[in-house]
Design a protein that fits this description.
This protein is of the alpha/beta class and 248 residues long. It contains 10 helices and 6 strands. The chain folds into 2 domains: 34 residues, no CATH class; 205 residues, Rossmann fold (3-Layer(aba) Sandwich), CATH 3.40.50. Helix 10 links the parallel strand 5 and strand 6. It starts with 8 loop residues before the first helix and ends with a strand.
């Protein structure tokens, strides 16, 4: 297709299929699907928060502390950080992307996940070289959904921040939907459900590396824990930090 001088594919798509804000339906341009007022109004995760799982506390905490979710647990990942609370427009955004197949929302979600990189534990670390790894779906679920929501977010995040992306994990066992289970059942359900891909086993890309493990939602941390355990124990990753759009 010929776009002409000074034009771009995004501008032509805007002309053919005028985009609008996913939440308020106001018209937009340049391939965006959230207007600034709606984006700014999304409920952010902010301090004080649990330094392990990123769960936000109400009120003022005198010192950083762990939340009830982490008091009796030891996670394999170093820490988790989400950008948004799973409520209101934020929940609708992820639900539409994930279950209604609104794939065009991947850029909005990835740019929101990128806000989590402003965490002082990451923003002050300028020397570490990071690799982005998406949480995988089992092939049966991906065939039904048509796409892996975590990978779509991870790929766009990697593009936005000029980071390498590596599909190091595969889901080797089909499991019950995590949303139907309590915390103990989630841990049992996921044990042994993730393995390294053949390519990672062969080439050891992640040995001694730092990993951003990317998913759409962090709830109990069971999925992130099992993925991080495999990345550290089997791939030899030195550090695993979990990044998600929502904190459930």
């Amino acid at each position: 297709m010929f776009f002409g001088v000074g034009s771009s594919p995004a501008r032509w798509l805007d002309f053919l299929f005028p985009p609008s804000c996913h939440l308020c339906r106001s018209p937009l341009q340049r391939g965006r699907y959230l207007c600034l007022p709606c984006r700014d109004s999304l409920p952010r995760v902010s301090s004080p928060l649990c330094l392990q799982c990123g769960f936000p506390f109400d009120g003022t905490q005198p010192d950083p502390t762990s939340c009830p979710n982490c008091e009796d647990r030891s996670f394999a990942f170093d820490f988790a950080r989400a950008t948004l609370l799973a409520r209101d427009g934020a929940r609708e955004l992820v639900h539409s992307f994930k279950y209604e197949r609104r794939l065009h929302l991947h850029h909005e979600l990835a740019s929101l996940v990128a806000e989590a990189l402003d965490d002082e534990r990451l923003s002050s670390d300028t020397n570490t070289e990071w690799t982005v790894v998406p949480v995988p779906l089992h092939w049966r679920r991906q065939q039904w959904r048509w796409f892996n929501q975590a990978r779509e977010i991870a790929k766009t995040l990697a593009d936005l921040r000029a980071l390498p992306i590596h599909d190091a994990l595969r889901r080797s066992r089909f499991t019950t939907q995590q949303t139907l289970l309590n915390r103990k059942q989630r841990l049992q359900n996921l044990h042994g459900a993730f393995q390294l891909t053949r390519r990672e086993k062969r080439h050891h890309f992640l040995r001694g590396k730092a990993v951003f493990l990317v998913d759409d939602v962090f709830t109990t941390g069971s999925t992130a824990h099992e993925c991080a355990r495999v990345l550290k124990e089997e791939a030899g990753a030195e550090k695993v930090v979990v990044l998600t759009a929502l904190r459930g």
